[in-house]
Amino acid sequence: MDQTNNGSYKKQETAAEAFYHSCLGKLVILAAVLGILFILGVMTKPTNDEMEMEMVDNILQCIDANDSIRGDKIDDHVNNMSNVFSKVDTAQVNKDLRISLNKNNRMEIYNHSWFRTAYIFNNIHPEGVRVGWGMFGVVYPTVTYEDLLLNVGPMQKKYNDGIIRSTVIDTHDMGTNPNIKPYHYQGDPDQ
Predict the structure, then answer these.
(1) Residue 28: which pLDDT band, with cuts at 50, 70 and 90?
(2) H-helix segments, 66-161
(3) Three-state DSSP class for 130?
């Protein structure tokens, strides 16, 4: 029973407040927000040309960042996030690496309902690896240096030849193996 005096702490909810506080109301509001985000995603999806242009820029930035020092996965993610807001200086990118990139890697852009994805296909990843996705007018790279095939050459010249090595392997003498026999660990080395 509701009291009509001023000392009552209970108030009458309107129909809108009751709907908002119900589980059905929260689900309807969530569906409306997701519907609005979906419509915005469809309207602001980057075009194929924008996606390809941005991904080539991001791949060149990845090559430029990994030319001398190899980082770990965290460095790759930080570089990818900074690549969203920057452009590559094409004069600094090695021309041979760029020619090798175009020769050995193929990029394909796939259209989804409210975003686009970019995949790189090469001999390392014949099934393709996702290197970026575009949504809300922005292209987000996920490319790492290991995704790209840049250096291609023979590993050996003839069938029975050894693998061609560009570096000299230093063969240090590691000493001699001790004469260990079975049951040596039990304390009797002669047994």
Answers:
(1) very high
(2) 73-83, 95-104
(3) strand
